[in-house]
Amino acid sequence: MRQLHLTRRIVVTGPATADEAWECYRVIDRWTDWAPHLTSVGASSPTLAAGVTGEATALGFVPTRFRVLAVDERSRTWSWVVCIGPIELHLDHDVAAVPRGSRAGLTLTGPALFVLPYEPLASWALHRLVHARG
Q1: How far apart are CA 7 and CA 75, in angstroms?
Q2: H-type alpha helices, the chain
Q3: Helices (H), 27-87
Q4: How many Cα atoms are found within 13 Å in the side-chain-facing hemisphere of 27?
Q5: pTM (global) more than 0.85
């Protein structure tokens, strides 16, 4: 049976500078600070880089594996694939400076049965990202 795939775009703004928001992405140990649906994260590197792999637990009981596909620190963009069992979600992130803060964007692609319930969690996490300070 073929699954319906969706692509959704989420964009949020907040008072954190683009450098502050990017640092929250860059340091993998900080992910659980601003993405509260992630209850644990372990990775092959402490910072984002293409090829980094790892595991995360979402909502306290959903095990996931991930692989970072690309990172461009200069443009503050990065992409990764998250696997929940045999299901793959592709996530493309970007951060930009805007007047009085930053804008964080996420393009999420995958099976509709996973994309739709994840969208509000991702929006909440991005909101916390652009409000993170220090």
Answers
A1: 22
A2: 18-26, 31-34, 112-129
A3: 31-34
A4: 12
A5: yes
pLDDT of residue 3: 74
Q: Which two tokens stand for residue 54?
A: 């790892």
Question: Which segments of 5-119 are extended strands (E)?
Answer: 5-14, 38-43, 53-58, 62-72, 77-84, 87-98, 101-111
pLDDT tens digits, one per residue of 57-101: 988 888 999 999 999 999 999 999 999 999 999 999 999 999 999
Q: Give the Cα separation of 129 and 18 in Å (integer).
A: 10
| Residue where the block lists tokens 């929940």 | 84
- 3-class SS of residue 51: coil
**Tokens at residue 126, please?**
């991005």
Maximum distance among all Cα pairs of the chain, rounded to whole angstroms: 48
For tokens 């699954």, what's the residue?
3
Q: Which two tokens stand for residue 25?
A: 């992405």
Q: How far is CA 129 from CA 10, 12, 63, 88, 91, in A?
A: 13, 9, 22, 23, 16
- The conformation of residue 29, written as its DSSP 8-state character, comes to G
